[in-house]
Structure prediction request, 174 residues.
Amino acid sequence: MATTQTKTASTKARRTRRTGRRDPLAVRLLKQDHREVEAWFDEYEQLEDEREKLALFNQIALALKVHTRIEEEILYPEERGQIEDDMLDEAYVEHDGAKKLIAEIEAMQPSDDFYDAKVKVLGEYIKHHVKEEEQPGGLFAQAKKGDEDLDAMGERLKARKAELMAELGGGKAN
Prediction:
C-alpha cells in the first residue's frame, strides 16, 4: 500500500512539473504575462467601439513594452551562454519587430485603415514569439537547465516590472 501511495505522489510531482506549476519564479511570471496579453488580444477581436479598442490596445502596448524591457534587461543578458545564441538573437529581433509595429499602431487611430489588421498581426507575431519561448527545447526550457537562480531572477523581474509600470504607465503599477 505504501508503495502505491509513493508511486502516486511521484506521478503527481512529474505531472505538476509538466503543467508549469513547478516552474521557477522567473518563468512563471513571464508566462503569466504571456497569458494576460493573449487574453487581451482575444478580447480585442470582439470589440467594435473605437474608444474601447484604443483603451485595450494601449493596455496591450504597455504590457508588451514592459515585458520586452524586463526580458531584454534581465533574462536575456543573464541567460547568454545558457541559451543558444541563435535563439536569443532571434528573440531580440522579434522584440524589435514588435516594438516597431506597436509604434506604428500608436501613431494611428482605430478608425484608420489597417488599424485592426495591424493589431491582429501584432497578436499573431506575439503568439509566435511566445511559442518560441515556451516550447520544449525553447528559451525557457533551456534557461531552466542552466546555472542561473531563476527564482532570484524572478524577484528582480518582478521589481523591475513594477518600476516600469509606474514609469511608463503613469503610476499604474501591476
Summary: Residues 23-168 form one domain. Residues 1-20 have pLDDT under 50 and may be disordered.
